[in-house]
Amino acid sequence: MTESDDPTLASGETQSPAETPPKFDPPDPKLRVRSSGRRTSEKRAKLPVTIRVILPLILLGVLGQKVYEWWRSNRVVVTFVDASGNPVTVEGEIELFSDSTHPADPAPQRLLRGPLPVSGDSFVFSADEVGDGANVRVRSEQFGTAFVTVEADGEATLLHLAPPVALSGVVQDRSGRPIADAQVTAIGWSVRGVALCETLTGADGDFLLSGISGTQLVWSLQLLADGYVVKNVDWSINEGSDPGEAPIVLTESRPIPGRLDLPDGLSAKGLSVGVLRLPSVDAEVAADGSFVLDHVPTRYSRVRLVVRGLPEGYTHLETVLPLPAAEIELEILAARRVRGQVISGHNDKGLANARVFHSHGPRGEELVTCDEQGRFELDFVPPTALEIGAAYTRAEAGTKTTSSGLVDVEAGSGELVLRIPIY
Question: Global pTM?
Answer without folding.
Answer: 0.76
